[in-house]
Amino acid sequence: MHEHIKPKPRHALPYKGSCHSNENANITWFIKSRGRPYPPGEESDKKNNTQLKNINSMIRYIQRKRRRGMLSYNSGRWRDDEAFKWRQQSQRMIDPHEIKIQNENTLNFKNHNTMKTKFKILKWTLMILLLLAGAGGAWAQGPYPNQGAHVVCLGDVAPYGVINTPGSSYTWSIIPLTGGNGTIAPGNTNLTSVTWNSSGTCNLQVIETNSSGCVGVPVQILVTVTPLNTIALSSAAGTDGQTICINTPLTNITYATTGATGATFSGLPAGVTGNWLANVVTISGTPSVSGIFNYTVTLTGGCGNITANGLITVTPANTITLSSIAGTDGQTVCINTALTNITYATTGATGATFSGLPAGVTGNWLANVVTINGTPTVSGTFNYTVTLTGGCANITSSGSITVTPDNTVTLSSAAGTNGQTLCINTPLTNITYATTGATGATFSGLPAGVSGNWLANVATISGTPTASGTFNYTVTLTGGCGSVTSSGSIIVTPANTVALSSVVGTDGQTLCINTPLTNITYATTGATGATFSGLPAGVTGNFAASVVTISGTPTASGTFNYTVTLTGGCANITATGTITVTPANTITLTSAAATTGQTICINSPITDITYATTGATGATFTGLPAGVTGTWAANVVTISGTPTVAGPFSFTVTLTGGCANITSTGTMTVNPLPVTSPIYHN
Asked: What's the pTM value of the predicted model, to 2 decimals?
C-alpha cells in the first residue's frame, strides 16, 4: 500500500542550503507528510496526484526565488520511492536534481560531488510561515507558481487561483472543447479547485467582478484532461490463467495498453519475464520453478494506478521412484514362476504405458502407483520401460527382467545307454547327459558300485555294478529353473551259475570202456548254452533249459578231465569233472606158445602156463584136469600142477575184475600110462 500526503493547497516548501553555482550538483529531495495516507482507490489517486502537483509548484516557486533561473520538470504520479527528474536551467546548467518521497519529515540535500546537507521539514503550518517569510511577498505575484496550459489526469482534483483583489468576486467556469470537463468547487473567491471527470480539452475560465460591479475580461487557461491508462488482455482468452508444465514455454500473455509509458511486473515465476513496448505488455518465457503464481502487471507513466492480474500455474515434472525392494527392477526369475511385484511411486502422472515386458507380465497404474506383476511364459532378457502419461515432462523409468528358461537334460551318450543291461562286476558303459541351466545334479536308484557326477553341464553315470538287479535311476538337476529330471534303467545281470545236479560223484566217475556213462547233469542260471571240452570219445555234452547233460559210452580209455563252459549270460563260468575210462582187461600168453596145447603123461608135471593180464584183479579157471590149478597174482595168471587124470582137457582162464569179460583158452592132453601086461617070461 502506498502512503500519500494529504493535500495542503497553496502551500510552498522552502528551500534552504546552498550549492555553488560553479559546481555541477546532483540534489536529492526527500519529502513526507505526517498526515494520514489516503486509503487506496481512484479517489485517493486523484487527491495524491493533486498533492504532488502542489508540492512541485511549491518547489519551483522556491527555486525561482532562491536560485534564479527556470526550473522545468516532468510531472508524475505521487508514489512512495518514485523519483522525479528535475533540471535547473541557468547559465551554468547545473546537473539534474531528484526529488524522492520517503517516510520521514525530512528534506535531504545531497551534492553527489561530496557536498551533503540535511534539512528538517517543519509541520505544514510552520512551512507556510517559513514560505511567507522567505518569499518576501510571493503572494503578490500569485497563489500558485505555474501559469499557462495545464495537463491533468482524469479524476484529478487540481487547485487554481488568481491574485486576489480585495472586494472582488470571481466566477469560475469550464468551456469544453473536445470533451474535457470537470466539477468546480463551490465559491467565488480567487481560489478554487476542479475535479476533472471527463477527458479531453477545455478552457478553465475566471471572470472577476470588482467591488464596483465592473466585470473584467475573462481569463482562460487550456486544460488537457488525460484519460486513465487502460489495460486489456489481447492474447487468447484464458492465457492469463494458464496452467503449464515446468520448463515448458509459456503461451505468450499479451495486454493492449493505452496511456502508459511502461509497466512493472510482480509475482511471475522464475524464467518468465514481462515487457512493455509500443502499448503492448508481453509476458513470456519458460518457467523453471513450479507453483501457483498470481502475477500483477502495473502500468507506469500516464494516469491512474492501473493493474491487471493473472494466474500462472506451473506444474512440476512428473516423478517416478522405485518403491518396491531395491533390486526388484533388475530381478532374475525362472520361466513360469511368478515375478516379485515391481512397484513405483509416481507424482503428477495420470497413467503409464509399458514396453519391453515379457509375455505373461503386465503393468498397471493406479492411484499414483505403478505395478508390474505376472508370471513370465517366455525366457530371455527383457529391458522394460515405464513411461508416465498425463502430467508434465516425458518421464520414464527402466529396468530389466531376466527370465531363465527351465533346465534341460538330454542324453548325449549313445542311444540305449540309459537302458543298458550288463553283467555284474562289469564296467558300465558311461551314460552321459548334456544339461543347460543347472548348476548340479543328484542321482538316485543307481546300483552299488555305480555313481553319478555333474560337471560343466554334463551329467555322467559310470562305475562297475557289484549288485545285480533292475535299477531304475533318476537324474534330478539342481540349481537353475524348473524341476527337471531324466530317468533310465540299468539291468545288472548276475554271473552265470553251474551246479552238479546228478548224483554226487558222477562228475568224477570211472567206467569201463564201451560201457555207458552214468549221466552227469548240471543245473545252470544265466547261461544260454555251454561248451564242453575233455570228454572221451563216445561221450558228449548238451545244454537245454538251463541243464547241462554229459552222457554217452566212452570208446576210448583213459582219464578225461572235462570242462563245461557256460555261454551267454554273465561271467566266464565253468564246471569241471573227470571221467576215467578203464580199458578192457587183457590176457596174454607169456609162457611158451606150446604150453597152451601141451600133451603130458598123467602124473607128470605140466609145463607151467603163464599169462600176463591187465585190468583184471583176478582170474577164474575152468577145464583143468585134476591136479592142475590156476592162480592170478600181480597181473600174472599161472597154471601149474600134475594132472592125475588122463584125458583131453580144454581149459579157460577168465579174468575177474577190471573191465570186459576176458578169457583165454587152451588144451591139455593127459595121456595115461601104458598098462603093461605082466611080464611074461618065457
From this structure: 0.55
